[in-house]
């Protein structure tokens, strides 16, 4: 269908621009190729409207210019670059253990969201406006921490695309981060810890006691295996405590640091926890374990039917906390979770005069702070235990 012939008074105006009467006043209107209309501000001069429309048309309505832009072999849709970036992150970060499996899955999930929102847009057309669109859709109403994590994600994926010439500048670098929020969660006290512990099932009881005794978070507790324990031929005495062996833990949050692998002495209390975990007669390689009768198979990241995810363990404690109506006068985000057991543990050790951050043995003639085992560095931890 042929376009409608322009009115006489608009015959000398660029394509898309026309003059209309609006509420008794003459206004210049521009119609985008998409069909959307905008009106120029009042008192806009004719030459100004013509200049603006001419510049816009030269960029967006000129087939020859579009042909030149399309010739840029690196200016490809975001969906193309997203696939390439995922592959690079897998090879360069996941396979080299610079990135944990959990964080890699979170990264891939975010790339899928980015692909859904901006996948059709050419990479060199991505701007701060698109960054804001992504944040508005996927971080609106979330905490400042989540908001800032999404900015970090965008910076990361755009930096990879810049590295491959798909973008000239990283638009996420121009985005302002939100200030760090004060911690809302209340501390878990020993009285409420014991109430939850006494009401807990067998595997949650083991998880809570193991976290309290080792000062480690749920990520490490959920991965602790019996094979990580090395038992001595005969108990020894260190710092006035009987030590039966060592439990080796690879800390997930700082897994690439030298101090990420720690060797914790198995004292009487820790040995009792490990022994108690075997009383259910469930064959499992994991110290914290359960048979849940999963109907949908194993969740992502699990390798054994008796293995529990960190989220499942943490949620079980939170549910029990609420069933007991503990901290019920606080909003849910303020109620202590499993993670607060670690803070409680550090607090209790501190009351005993033991600094959990400095439990690594000092270098001297008889012991070393860091030693090698199977070409891996391990940090020795001084024996200590909590009796509650």
Automatic annotation (TrEMBL):
Annotated InterPro entries: DNA_brk_join_enz, Integrase-like_cat_sf, Integrase_recombinase_N
Keywords: DNA recombination, DNA-binding
SUPFAM superfamilies: DNA breaking-rejoining enzymes
Name by which UniProt lists this protein: Integrase
Lineage: Bacteria, Pseudomonadati, Pseudomonadota, Gammaproteobacteria, Alteromonadales
């Amino acid at each position: 269908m042929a376009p409608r012939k322009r009115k006489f008074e608009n015959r000398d105006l660029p394509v898309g621009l026309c003059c209309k009467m609006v509420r008794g006043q003459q206004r210049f209107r521009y119609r985008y190729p998409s069909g959307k209309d905008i009106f120029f501000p009042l008192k806009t001069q004719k030459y100004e409207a013509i200049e603006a429309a001419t510049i816009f048309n030269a960029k967006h309505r000129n087939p020859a210019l579009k042909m030149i832009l399309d010739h840029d072999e690196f200016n490809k849709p975001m969906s193309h670059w997203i696939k390439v970036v995922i592959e690079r992150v897998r090879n360069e970060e996941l396979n080299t253990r610079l990135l944990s499996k959990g964080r890699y899955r979170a990264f891939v999930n975010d790339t899928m969201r980015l692909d859904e929102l901006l996948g059709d847009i050419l990479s060199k057309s991505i701007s701060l406006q698109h960054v804001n669109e992504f944040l508005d859709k996927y971080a609106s109403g979330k905490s400042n921490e989540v908001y800032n994590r999404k900015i970090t994600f965008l910076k990361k994926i755009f930096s990879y695309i810049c590295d491959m010439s798909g973008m000239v500048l990283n638009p996420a670098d121009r985005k302002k981060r939100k200030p760090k929020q004060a911690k809302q969660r209340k501390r878990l006290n020993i009285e409420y810890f014991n109430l939850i512990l006494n009401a807990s099932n067998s595997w949650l009881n083991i998880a809570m006691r193991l976290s309290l005794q080792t000062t480690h978070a749920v990520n490490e507790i959920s991965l602790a295996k019996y094979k990580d324990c090395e038992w001595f031929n005969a108990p020894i005495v260190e710092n006035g405590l009987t030590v039966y062996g060592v439990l080796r833990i690879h800390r997930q949050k700082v897994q690439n640091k030298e101090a990420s692998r720690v060797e914790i002495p198995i004292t009487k209390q820790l040995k009792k926890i490990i022994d108690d975990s075997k009383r259910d007669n469930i064959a499992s390689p994991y110290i914290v374990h359960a048979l849940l009768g999963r109907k949908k198979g194993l969740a992502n990241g699990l390798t054994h039917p008796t293995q529990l995810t960190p989220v499942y363990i943490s949620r079980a404690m939170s549910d029990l906390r609420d069933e007991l109506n503990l901290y019920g006068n606080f909003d849910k985000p303020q109620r202590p979770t499993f993670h607060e057991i670690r803070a409680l543990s550090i607090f209790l050790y501190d009351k005993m005069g033991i600094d959990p951050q400095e439990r690594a043995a000092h270098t001297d003639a008889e012991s070393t702070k860091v030693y090698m085992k199977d070409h891996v560095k391990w940090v020795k931890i001084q024996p200590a235990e909590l009796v509650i």
